[in-house]
Amino acid sequence: MRHRGVVCSACRSKLLIQGSGTPRPRWQASRDLGTAAQAAGGTETTDSTRKASRPRSKNPAPARHQPPWVERQRARRGIDEVESSGPLAVFRKVLDAQAKETDRPTSTTPPANLELYKDVAKLEEMLAQSNIPTSTCFRFFESRIYPTISQPNRIRDRVSKRLMTRVASEKPNDFESGDLPSVTRISQIQLELGLLDPKAWATMTTRLLQHICRISTAPGDYTTIESYENAMARRVTLLQDLIGNWKIFNVPRIVALRAGDAAKAAQEPRLPSLDMKTISWNSKKGKSHLSIAALFPQYAPNQLQTATYAAIATFVLFSDPYNRTDRVMRQETAPFVDAVGMILSKRPPRKDQLGPMFEDYPDLSQYVTSRWSTVLPQLAGQSKLQGVDQKIRANHAARAQTMDGIHRQLGQALKTRSLEAVDRTWKGFWGEATTPTPERAGRLRNSAELFNYFIMAYMGMRQPKRAIDVWNCMVQIGVVPTLKTWNSMIDGCKRARNPAGLKAVWQQLIAAGIALDTPIWTARIAGLIELGEPEAGLAALDEMARLWNERAASGKDSSSAVRPSIEPVNAALAGLLRLDRVAVAKSLLAWAARQGIQPDIFTFNTLLRPMVRQGLSDEVANIFTMMKNQGVEADVATFTILIEGALGDMGDQSPERQVEMVTSMLRDVEAAGVEANMITYAKMVHVLLQQGDRAGESVKAVLAHIWGKGLELTSHIYTMLAEHYFSRDPPDPQAVTTLIASRRLQENRDIDRVFWERVIKGYCQVGDVDRALRLFERLDRSGSRITLSTLYELLVALVRAQRMEAASAIVDVAWKFRDQLEQADVADDGGRFWKHRFWHRAEQYGLLRECHLASFQAANSA
């Protein structure tokens, strides 16, 4: 005590403790809290002192039992605040404020709560100091206070509200700042604290939408590929934040009572089912906003006017082809886009109605109104699809997804020539039982193409017995082998480089007496030429013509007789040109003319390709004259060949001229009524990247054109870009990292192993072993077989970085794949496997185990 009438902080704390001696537990204060307060004050008051310091009331009320908080309130009247500064003063203020609470949830306060009070006091002090950034306050809150939100605490919630309000108000000033949390994170914490206000949320979301629209997607607005890619990466990050923000908004408060609950619930958002009758009724009444509001039933419709405007703008943004290039993003936005699109399709807003919705956001208003004429046809198309039975579509999609998975697994096994993987995939398709159940057999009958694929795979790995087993399984369940099945066997022989096997299959086919068709003859002719027997291939083509002529002369039916057409001629022509048999190819065309076979566009394209590459301009002109005379129009392949040749001479042009040429070529293709495909674009990118950074502007133009059409780059194009960045002087691994992040390639299942292996090698070559190792581990976990050449680069890089434990793990992974090569039944594969320089380097580093050494020494002893 200092003087009469003034109570020090320690005495106040003592009052809190002793004044809570009532038997009603909800008013009790914590004994631990009182002890801590005493220690802070350093003074202990007696009961008599406490009584003496309590002022008397001038108008005493009748005696009755009063709760302790009333007595404490009286005790504090007229008390002067003790002068102090720093955290202790704030802590005392918190204690005083806490004493005013009338509904404490527990009778005792554990030591952890004392720490919470201290943290809250610290946060209040930080917020009060203008020199402490909001980001610093938030990091303190996130690490110390946020994990406790499941524990009721009014003081904490008041301080948290003050902080999050400040965070939410500052975030729109710089949406791309990494100092403050993302918009999604802000909304998540506000929801979990019960602070999410739909109107304030919608305002922040609309400002985010406008910021995204301000990021130009035109490559001409950027000076380099990197600056363009970085801008697009930032834009994708913001789009992901927008998606996450809507997911959080969809989460009901009741399932977000603890730290992290909202984020977990948002991982699988579920929009409520919409009643079409209600949607139609609202549309007729001009109240489509009520239907959009019904997507978020946890809020009252009158709270969601701004949110419905934001939903319309978000729909326009997500339906923009430029923002639909990322498959993962399409999947994430599909439920929202479909639901809002279905609502808007009933009665789309007029263009003049859009302006008032976004009058405070001019850039967003301009974007939405400029795209509205494109959105309206999309809405009309969506309206037509609404009558499709959703249940049937879902069942079909589920079955297709299963069969697609089998197809992908078999394709991967075939690429790696892993007989074990093919067998495993077959078991997953057919099942473990010798005879499938009737239900499974019914599903298998609809998968004749997969049976053919398995036959081709086994024939391609020189396993004819297993191919026949698959054939017998087809027959067992009632699937009749067709000419496509025989074609698969021929294709398998071609893959296995087995001309003798191909001839044997053909003899069996003829003996079976099955009526042949053009594709099967084409497969035979092309296969023989590709396997290095062009004379046999041309003889087969001549046999085809002879059998047909004999049938025409005799009038008798023949199962082997098929009218010769341009398809087998084209196949033979392509094979001959690949073998550089130009003279024979010309003779073939003369033969076709004598047979009355007219060339088609594929014929001319096949002839054009080598001529363009060799720069034979006169020959190219003659071919186009022939095309014109015969009425054959150029297609996308024709333009691709010409573009490839033209771009090869662009290296000396200025960047502006390069962009002009590329844009002109793409425009000419479209003017000809031809839709460029990804092969065309890949050719363009490949040729341009051969010129190095000089072609940066033109590459940007091609990429922007692709994304502007809503197309996604192929794995091949991504591989070319990665190789370009790594081949710079000096190499630019950060550009590769940005590319992977901006296009979310780790989530794109269409990105093949070739891309990831090239990136791993590139990281190894620049010494970034951490990134290389992370990608390697990801590939290994996915079950993808990694080539020894990539493992070699990774092994050398790890040893160079003295990461011997990781290097030893790489050797174990290589050992894991040994059986796949040794069981593939390809001559001397096992020997080649152990003779690879990877094993020699591993042996040099002393990383071979006993189980490795025997096989390694046996293979290399000869």
From TrEMBL:
Compositionally biased intervals (Low complexity): 34-46
Pfam families for this protein: PPR, PPR_2
Domain of life assignment: Eukaryota
Gene3D superfamilies registered for this protein in UniProt: Tetratricopeptide repeat domain (1.25.40.10)
Region (Disordered): 18-81
Sequence ranges of Basic and acidic residues compositional bias: 71-80
Ranges: PPR repeats: 482-516, 600-634, 752-786
Assigned protein family: Belongs to the PPR family. P subfamily.
NCBIfam families per record: PPR (TIGR00756)
PANTHER family: MITOCHONDRIAL GROUP I INTRON SPLICING FACTOR CCM1, TETRATRICOPEPTIDE REPEAT (TPR)-LIKE SUPERFAMILY PROTEIN
Protein name: Pentacotripeptide-repeat region of PRORP domain-containing protein
Native species: Phialemonium atrogriseum
